[in-house]
Write the structure tokens for this entry.
Amino acid sequence: MAVPLFDPSTPLELLRPALRAAIDDVLATRRWILGPQVAAFEEEWAAYTGTTHAVGVANGTEAITIALRALGVGPGDDVVVPSFTYFASGEAIPPTGARPVFCDIDPATSCLTLESVRAAVTPRTKAVVAVHLFGNVAPVREIEEDLGLPVVEDVAQAAGSLAAEGRPGNLGAIGTFSFYPSKNLGAFGDGGAITTSDAALAERVRTLRFHGAADRVTHTEVGYNSRLDELQAAILRVQLPKLDGWADHRRAAGTWYAAAGLGRHATLPEPTHGSRPAWGLYVVRVPEPDALAARLAERGIGARGYYRVPIHRQPVFAAEHGDLRLPGTAEAARTHLAIPMSAAITRDQIEEVVEAIRDAVG
């Protein structure tokens, strides 16, 4: 049985009529930018995350940059960010004028910790970017309360996840989301959002996303052309009522992997304390992950490593940060492997994946 690494299409099949109707409605109204669909989605997304404000932007990367600037981050500042994550989490910092300072992660959870952030803080640290990697939930409240630093939550991979304190995007000063098609809530192209319960931050975000103009006419600063468009907002609105069900399925799939005995052949991801991850990716650790991926591919099963080269060792950052020792990051980079996970994966497919891994590694 072939099992894809992702299956974003199957959950959308039942939504085809509603999606077509939503697209047709946008075509009929001929409102393309910052129209009623975006306004409605922003209201619904704020309600879903438990915040008072949501602002649609063009993508998840610019969401981080704009969120940092809204917090006042700029030249001369440092921003702590984990190195074991997608490049965009670090890439979003230099456009503010600030310097990224890379911290370690706990390989068991793939998330930064209070201790790893504390070790990376400098006298110039202005903010922390905490990544809820693979759907797991980073200890945002703990960091803000202990260190007194504002946290930008990178929730690109964790829509639908839960923490003891609430939903990601409402745990720190400000949250950022990507709606790239492979995400837990995916658009049909690029899209993003920023959430906060701070009215002043929300207003600054709205100004920055529209060329630095709060009234669309008077430009008080250099901002961005970064807006979620009406088509993507309409598509996201159709899917949003299904997100919790999809997230529950992803959580259940994680328990199915454990029940099928995967833990005898690979190290399973550990939810952070009090969290209920909606696994955006289900990432295990094995001694030879790329060899295992090749064996799985022979049986039609998708698997891949994502961050073999952490951000601090990428060429653009290596000259300044390449000698940094981050042992948890090194271990995770060397051993991690994403295996099939989706909102439509079946128990039979999971049994097939576990059997294939057992046959490959013993």
